[in-house]
Amino acid sequence: MAKGIFNLKDLLYEDLVLFDIEASDDEKLLRKMSEKIKEKGFVKDTFADAIVKREQIFPTGLSTEGIKVAIPHTDIEHVITPCVTIARLKKPVIFKEMANEKNTVPAEIVFMLAMNAHDGQVNVLEKLMNIFCNKEVLLKLSTIDNAAEMIQVLTE
């Protein structure tokens, strides 16, 4: 694999697909998700603060058809091993909208990117955006309760 060009399948881990996650706001959710990947050694101690700060400045909520999503990510220097953590939420968490931060998005699934190469982040965002344009796939993701199946749907 060339540096910075990632296959989505290589970034998804069954134990980083989280179901029925609860959080009262986006910051608490991002900290909870960050703690999970920090425990696994994927990110540095600085990751949680960095992703929360970046989300405040550059919101990532997307008003996608079917179900709403958010794709928080931060700078590469906070990442040791690249991964994507997926949280399907018990109840939607409000994120500011990427295109217009005056709007809010009640995100139901959050795809948190931890990338260690700039071009890799762009590459993975493009792949995810293609998935997010498919209402049927998003609706399917909202009903899956099995991490392996979730990964399979995302990488088909």
Question: Which key phrases capture this entry?
Answer:
5 strands; 5-stranded mixed beta sheet; 156 residues
Structure in words:
This protein has 156 residues and is an alpha/beta fold. The chain is 38% helix and 25% strand. The chain is built from 6 helices and 5 strands, in the order αβααββββααα. It has helices at 8-11, 26-39, 47-57, 118-132, 135-141, 147-155, and strands at residues 12-21, 61-62, 69-70, 83-96, 104-114. Strand 4 and strand 5 (104-114) form a beta hairpin. Helix 2 packs antiparallel against helix 3. It is globular. The two termini are 19 Å apart.
Compact summary:
This protein has about 160 residues and is an alpha/beta fold. It is about 40% helix and about 25% strand. It has a 5-stranded mixed β-sheet with strand order 1-4-5-3-2.
Stretches where pLDDT is under 50 for at least 5 consecutive residues are none
Order of strands in the sheet with the most strands?
1-4-5-3-2
Mean pLDDT: 94
Please summarize the sheet with the most strands.
5 strands, mixed
Helix- and strand-based class? alpha/beta
Percentage of residues in DSSP E strands: 25-35%
What's the β-strand tally? Answer: 5
**SS field, number of helical segments:** 6
* Helix and strand run: HEHHEEEEHHH
Gross morphology: globular
Radius of gyration, CA atoms, in whole angstroms: 14 Å
**Helix percent band:** 25-40%
Cα end-to-end separation: 19 Å
